[in-house]
Design brief:
Layout lengths: L6 H14 L3 E6 L8 E6 L5 E8 L5 E5 L8 H14 L4 E6 L10 E2 L1
Length: 111
């Protein structure tokens, strides 16, 4: 099992990886610095959005879950999903990745 990193460290690393492929990432909502969960709104603009939720796989490694399903959704649906999650968990981090060319994908596995 990998060492547990703080949420703010994981978010900073995620933003750096997004920038390395030429996309833009920004913190939309800052959660708990130590243990907050992370949601990513992957905005492909005309191609739609996906909301990814960071989770752990059965072995305990970091992974991503397609929170809004495998197909893309429009931006309003993605934002509505995020707002619902924030009502339940104010410690949640929300990162928006603006990626019209589709160059970014998460480093961790999808589950």
């Amino acid at each position: 099992m990998e060492p547990k990193l703080t949420a703010d460290f994981r978010v900073k690393a995620l933003i750096r990886r997004v920038q390395q492929v030429g996309a833009v990432a920004m913190v939309v909502h800052r959660g708990d610095a130590t243990a907050g969960s992370v949601l990513v709104k992957h905005n492909r603009f005309a191609a739609g959005c996906r909301v990814l939720s960071q989770t752990r796989d059965p072995a305990g490694a970091l992974a991503w879950f397609a929170a809004t399903g495998t197909a893309t959704v429009d931006e309003a649906a993605a934002d509505a999903y995020i707002e619902r999650q924030l009502r339940f968990d104010r410690d949640l981090w929300v990162i928006e990745v603006e990626d019209p060319r589709g160059t970014w994908s998460p480093d961790e596995a999808m589950v």
